[in-house]
Specification:
14 helices; globular; alpha/beta; binds flavin-adenine dinucleotide; 2 domains; about 425 residues
Length: about 425
């Protein structure tokens, strides 16, 4: 049994702490904020509805580490299989196909573009494994020009808040150059990916995990030091020694803590840019287009500042008054930030029948999403080798952008490390 400190009570830190505890270690989590979850937290609005701080839902596939974690925590899930999603392209909203029949009828791709997808199991062998591509190039090599240029840009922009041409394929583990499998064949074998939410919101996952961990809140770790065979972690009124310490924080926060321990890793982590975005919550009356829908994502060419819009009310128990609650994602590169009138006029281009809003609130998700550029992933892998025994960085950016990737990443990290029983 080892005495272990996990710095950060986000989904990365809590998952790692829970797993390490199951393996019999004495684990403490230290969190600078006053609540667990990091970006994965659910608040209530004044009408008893939910407001998510970060993710609204996650991809859950049977048998994956995330699925097993949810089962072991006995968290009931609400699945959103029936809800439509749209992509805004060529000035209109086009439904994302939900099955093969819809796929062949969809105007999103030409017949040639659709057929090209089915060549992936034969052509992926010819992708140059020695070369790191941008995410857009990697998607094009696998699925052809149309998927890469019409379909993927909106999806990537919606998840990473930057165009696929500006990030490395390593940003999405599934497109990583080390992934030497046919993605189409794998997804056919797996069946369709289910989008799901814990029944009380995403924060239920981190709350339940937190209830199984020992957490010290309102304490920011500012110094790490190795002396007399132990790691010493200190904050303003905190000092404790451990056998091992795991940093489950964003890269730039880890960089500060590692400055004197590993200058190379610290500088590599400091160079990882994080994108900020504005989130606008608004309430409207029933809207036919968005009824039974998760909302839409826009192709980057379609709007100066709108990334897309999520229908939060679709995830809540049936609302008899049919109130529509939107969460609109806005690029934060705009200064000053667009006001509600600008956002509403932009939304009207896509939803001409959207009613004026009864309530709106704009907040900024500061340095929210890592933007991994070409060359950074190999640099991270090399620089991580500098870390002395008993210290590691396991923040979300190391494993991928989503909750599913993080839980998978922590699972394979545990299997590789010498910590697992
Ligand atoms: C707006 C938004 C929407 C998203 N949507 C989705 C989605 O739909 N689906 C999906 O799967 N993913 C989504 N994500 C991504 C996902 O939420 C994040 O990848 C994930 O939550 C990151 O978790 P983490 O634990 O690595 O980091 P964080 O959540 O950043 O947690 C790190 C924690 O460490 C603490 N900390 C930092 N430094 C210190 C220190 N020195 N001492 C003590 N504590 C410290 C912080 O306070 C924080 O609580 C979204 C993210 C955002 C921002």
């Amino acid at each position: 049994m080892k005495k272990i400190l996990v710095i950060g009570a986000g989904i990365s830190g809590l998952t790692a702490a829970y797993r390490l505890r199951l393996d019999g270690h004495d684990v403490t989590v230290v969190e600078s904020g006053n609540a667990p979850g990091g970006w994965v937290q659910t608040d209530q609005d004044s009408h008893g509805g939910r407001i998510e701080k970060g993710p609204q839902l996650m991809a859950v596939e049977a048998g994956t580490p995330l699925h097993l974690l949810l089962c072991s925590l006995e968290i009931p899930l609400t699945t959103h299989r029936h809800l439509s999603r749209f992509i805004g392209i060529d000035g209109r909203l086009i439904r994302v196909p939900r099955n093969l029949l819809e796929f062949f009828k969809s105007p999103l791709l030409t017949l040639q573009g659709k057929l090209r997808i089915f060549l992936e199991p034969f052509l992926y062998h010819f992708v140059d494994k020695g070369r790191e591509y941008t995410l857009q190039e990697a998607i094009e090599k696998r699925f052809g020009f149309e998927v890469a240029n019409r379909l993927a840009p909106a999806l990537v922009n919606g998840i990473l808040a930057v165009p696929a041409s500006e990030v490395s394929q390593e940003s999405f583990p599934v497109f990583s150059k080390s992934n030497d499998r046919s993605l189409l064949w794998e997804s056919i074998k797996r069946g369709s990916t289910i989008l799901a939410t814990p029944s009380r919101g995403m924060g239920q996952l981190t709350q339940v995990l937190a209830s199984k961990c020992t957490i010290v809140f309102n304490t920011e770790i500012t110094t790490l030091e190795y002396r007399q065979q132990h790691w010493h972690a200190s904050g303003a009124s905190y000092h404790e020694k451990f056998d091992s310490i795991f940093l489950a924080t964003a890269a730039h926060k880890a960089a500060t803590l590692l400055t004197s321990i590993s200058p190379r890793l610290s500088s590599v982590l400091r160079n990882i840019e994080y994108t900020s975005l504005h989130l606008c919550h608004s309430t409207h009356s029933y809207n036919k287009t968005l009824d039974d829908s998760l909302g839409f994502l826009l192709h980057p060419n379609e709007s100066e500042f709108l990334l897309g819009c999520f229908v939060s009310s679709s995830l809540e128990p049936l609302d008899k008054s049919k109130t529509l609650k939107l969460r609109t994602f806005i690029k934060a590169n705009q200064s000053p930030a667009p006001n509600w009138q600008d956002i509403y006029s932009e939304l009207l281009k896509w939803l001409p029948d959207l009613s004026p809003c009864a309530f709106s609130r704009i907040e900024t998700a500061q340095l929210a999403i890592p933007k991994l550029q070409l060359g950074q992933s190999p640099e991270i892998i090399t620089a991580l080798k500098d870390l002395p025994m008993g210290l590691d960085w396991i923040g979300g950016a190391r494993f991928g952008p989503g909750v599913k990737d993080i839980v998978e990443g922590i699972d394979s990290w545990m299997k590789r490390s010498d910590l697992e029983a």
